[in-house]
Amino acid sequence: MPDGFEERELVERAKQDPDAFGALYDRYFPQIYRFAYSRVRDQSLAEDVTSEVFFKALKNIQRYTYSGHPFSSWLYQITLNAVADHYRGQHGEVDLEEGASLPSGGPAVVDEVVRRDRSRRIWSAIDQLPRQQRAAMVLKFGEDRKIEEIAQILGKSSGAVKLLLHRGVDRLRKELPQLEAELT
Amino acid sequence: MTNDPELDELFSDPADREVVDLLKASRPAAPPLDPHFRNYLRAKLMTEARRTLPARTSRSWFPFTLSPRTLAPAMAAVAAGFLVVLGVEIYLHRQPASIPVAVNIGKTIDKKTDVGTAEPIVIPFSGPVDKKAVADSVQIQPATSATKQWVGQNLVIIPDHPLAPNTSYTVSLKPSATAPPQPNPTAASQPKPTAQPAPTVAPTPVVVHFTTARPPVLPVVPPSFKSLNVSWGHDSRLGDFTTSGSVLSAAWTPAGKLLVTRPAGQPGPGSLPSSSASPTPSGSPAPKATTDVWLMSSLGTPIRILVPGGSFPAAAPSSGLVAAWRVVPGNPASLEVWDLQGTLSATIATLDGVPDRAPVWIGADRIAYVDQGRLRVVDLHGSQANGLAIKMDRGSLEASPASPLLAVEAATGSVVLDLAAGGSTTQLPPGATGFAWSSKGDLGFLVQQNRGTDLYVAADGKIFNRVATSTNGQTWSDLSWGPDATSLLLATKATNGNGAPGLILVNRDGSSPISFGATSREYASPQWSPSGDLVLFTRRDEAGGRAFWTATATPSTTDAAENQALAEVDKFMKARIHGDSRAAQAELDDAGLAAYQAGGSLLLSPAGNPFSRYYPVTVQLAGSTPNQFLVGVRIFSARGGVETSFFEEQLTLVLQGQRYLVHTVKASATLALGHGPTVVSVEIVQSPPGEEVRVHFDSDLKSETVSRDTIQVKDGDGKLVDARVTFDPDNHLATLAVKLRPGNYQLVVTPGVTDVNGVMLAQEYDAPLVIGG
């Protein structure tokens, strides 16, 4: 994790210095691309989203002000918006209500789960979570973000993020009997 | 993932904890990533950033005018490596105004040599062009499939495979491009406006020539070499401060040079303060890299910096590529592939933690590494192998150079993983560690016991036998096979005061262990050089420090002989290229002189068509002793500074007194360049139980034309030798698996081989093959 002061200095320089912006890109490309891919599950779309994120960041970096959160939080926010924009009006992403169950009563998911190895199984299951839960789970377990940071990215309170994580973990535990069997 | 107090606080229910622990222990699979995309996007962003950000300092519109060092990251950005800026000036006239659009394409590399084989080709335009038409008009000879991308006003041509070494390329752009973007959409889409004097036609085609770098000539391990017969010569420290500075790690390349990790900013050719440590235009230091990877001579003389900011390099067994980790503070470490010219080829993986070991090449196209305690295998496009679920920590990990076998000291036990058989495993004895593969594909490993160390050898990596055990109180470690695969070198340490530390040379069957080098010094990590004339190792000095050393292994007559023979060839060829008849004749014996005088070949080039360069195509021992070598050389001729044709000579060099002299010559017909694919080089490699004949081409070929019908080995009587032919399109490499008895053979490549455009080999290619007794 970059030192906060150093990052702030780099961001400030990036408002005027292309090389500094390049350094920011080098630093954050892997996680933004990874996060974008986790949301769209398509390499080409992930490339489009990642491009959009960094071009938007470049366009708007003059307006970025440090708010106590890592610069990456801002990029994650842009990523989420870019993904939402992409799917707006399309049907590619299943956007379930928070209280909804995992899709299709489980058999397809379970079949998929049974076939895959342990790690892939659980991450595959995360893919099936409702959108906000999935974002919170990916940011916490895949990207090691702090809860407060996730809250800022998702525009929620820390308490709400904790609830999302709780529900996500609870859902994984309850909805995946195969996993449960292996774990117990 | 480390402990996360937030999760500890949030999840206290044991059932939840189990799910959380599983999530923490696992990671989502790395997403597929086109290695060019990251660099491509960066280049686009940087162009846009330079256009839109209020610059603090005056900048050019495109960074090519910056110093090479400053330029490096931006150049690497455009596509996996330093950019080849094709220096061309195209003046496209916009009629009727007749104002040149002034498409000024920077500095020239036209007629440049030593261009890296992994370098993308970039053509920067400064004026509006019809991008699609320009891109569509690009033609490359020899036939090379490529992806073309526009990055702003720069056309980036990325060959789908690395370019062939030692090859003259011609890139042409047909002048169908210029159309200003807006006025008339139909005009922009007009194909081939060269057919008529359309307003946007440029006057002449743009043609650029360049030559790729020479590949390393792989050392020959002659049949006479016996690693058990060598003795310790003299040693020298690798890290002399006046030449190479501090050395943090070192390993051989297949060509007998050294890959070395040094602290950043060390002296050497092309060295400048590390780019990442240089002050930025704003005056603040950027994050500092701590190490660089260098290429050094076997004597430790720095040749060039290969990977700025790199560490833990590993050389591919045959392709001239290097994999290394590059760490930029604040970023995940990236696994990158570079060529030996110092050009980034691809970024193929990232690591969340700090790398603590070198990646391991599996053949020429896959790399194994350990990430978060898991074994991963990735190809050069960054695609991860599926299905590997092997946990390992700091255990040994080595790949066979002869087959797709990987020896893994996994958390659950040591295994040999067969990647060609769906990852099937062969279990090794408990505690097996310290893996080392011989050039013939045998696996050596060690098992530490209470009273000493057992040495095992597994023939072909499969059937293992304990062949030796250390004496009581001695601990063995750090195996290294002799290049002839008949002996093993290992480090020994005394425990409980029994015996002396040092290096031991032991037969493959465990017999005749002998001390090698000075005893009573603590050695580690011995590594034979590929030709067996040097040993690289670390040794603890009197002050307790550890330094890298090399020691000569004497007698090393054969390698020295080959080098001497090649040096004579070099003198001979340079004299001919310079038109110095007297110096050239001084390299001939009486028979050689008579052969040239009788018209066996042209000693000097004809007027108006001078010899421009040469390179060795093959180097073979022409017998069982290093007194005679057969050297194939390819000689190019040029007109007006552009190479137009070549021919080959097979030179026999015979040791006469203290020198090798050219004794016979046999010349091929002259071939015009640019008329179909050609053979670039031929190698014979031992591949038990037989041999492999590896034929490298310069062009992208139609795979279906590479077969037993088109590439053949014939014996002395002209009879076809049974061969299995495989083709690696990525490396333009045809491999013939054969079993040859000692004797003379001939490689025949027929005109049936065609490039991807359907152009046939201009004429049959023949080359002698000699199998020593």
Topology:
The complex is a heterodimer of chains A (184) and B (773).
Chain A: H1 4-14, H2 18-40, H3 43-60, H4 71-87, H5 107-115, H6 118-127, H7 131-142, H8 147-154, H9 158-175, H10 177-183
Chain B: H1 5-10, H2 14-25, H3 35-52, H4 68-79, E1 84-85, E2 88-90, E3 93-94, E4 99-100, E5 103-105, E6 112-115, E7 121-124, H5 131-137, E8 138-141, E9 146-151, E10 154-159, E11 168-173, H6 185-188, E12 206-212, E13 231-237, E14 249-252, E15 258-263, E16 291-296, E17 302-307, E18 310-315, E19 321-326, E20 333-339, E21 344-351, E22 360-362, E23 366-371, E24 374-379, E25 397-399, E26 405-410, E27 413-418, E28 424-427, E29 432-437, E30 443-448, E31 453-459, E32 463-469, E33 474-481, E34 487-494, E35 502-507, E36 514-516, E37 523-528, E38 534-540, E39 546-554, H7 557-577, H8 581-585, H9 590-597, E40 611-621, E41 628-639, E42 642-656, E43 659-667, E44 671-672, E45 679-687, E46 690-697, E47 711-714, E48 724-728, E49 733-738, E50 743-749, E51 765-771
